[in-house]
Amino acid sequence: MKKILLIATGGTIASxxxxxxxxxxxxxxxxxxxxxxxxxxxxxxxxxxxxIDSTNIQPEYWLDIANxxxxxxxxxxxxVVCHGTDTMAYTTAALSYLIQNSPKPIVVxxxxxxxxxxxxxxxxxxxxxxxxxxxxxxHAVCLVFDGKVIAGTRARKVRTKSYNAFESINYxxxxxxxxxxxxQYISESVPCAYPAFYSAIDPKVCLLKMIPGMNPDVLTYxxxxxxxxxxxxxxxGGIPSDEHRNFLNEVERIVSMGKIVVMTTQVMHxxxxxxVYAVGHVAKQRYGLMESFDMTLxxxxxxxxxxxxxxxxxxxxxSMFYTTINRDILFQGx
Length: 334
Description:
Helix content is 27%, strand content 24%. By secondary structure, the chain is an alpha/beta fold. An eight-stranded mixed β-sheet has the order 4-1-5-7-8-9-12-13, with helices on both faces. It has a four-stranded parallel β-sheet with strand order 15-16-17-18, sandwiched between helices. Strands 2-3 form a two-stranded antiparallel sheet.
């Protein structure tokens, strides 16, 4: 029987009603008590490392979670992290970079309703996660929610209230779980080596979401405050260069300061391709911009934070960004 460590961090799954609204209050032991049926396939120890609304999650907390798993890695066959849904995709992506090539499963889950409510998705999500963490073929970081198993770098919250809150972006589901049965769609050999754990992360990454009418000087401000800037542009990706609001001069300025600029798209599916239109091709070739291609925004953000924590060499950063980690990018660079 597999031995699993349940790590609780708060979130809706652990919340109770208060005068100000739902607040995380339930402990890890209380969460586990709601799924007694898991004793049939695993033994579970619990640990509470924080109890917060995931809106308050910070990069430093990702390190806390990763370090907790590292400290107890030899003692367990798998790990389940209970987390709030609002920033769950960021945390799952971040853990994919902080813990790489894990032969043991690291499952992140949560719920849209508290676990002690009469009607809730929490009990199913938690039981499914413990089941998948006990599955022989499971490994690496993934998200389990509403019967879907999603690669840790491919998850995104797409609905604010419905139980089917998460989708896998630009990549198939790894598996589905129905009535206690795991149906695996994508299988690969389980790594044999000890995983690579990382303990450095640099949160000086900023996102600029383009809208018509935006003043280009916002990029100058970002360049002064942050080491890497992600520009979330339109369609397949381009830099506005209209005579009224020309962003190219500001891009040139921040690139000359040694800042990293990555282009991505506001469109959820199919990714960027800056070579399609002149507005993208010119900016990419002239200033050496990187682009996220089919990566999710959550993966691009957390991967840059991880990269910045390891190196400040531009060529090495580009190579690391385009290297596939936990299925995060299908295109591997030029």
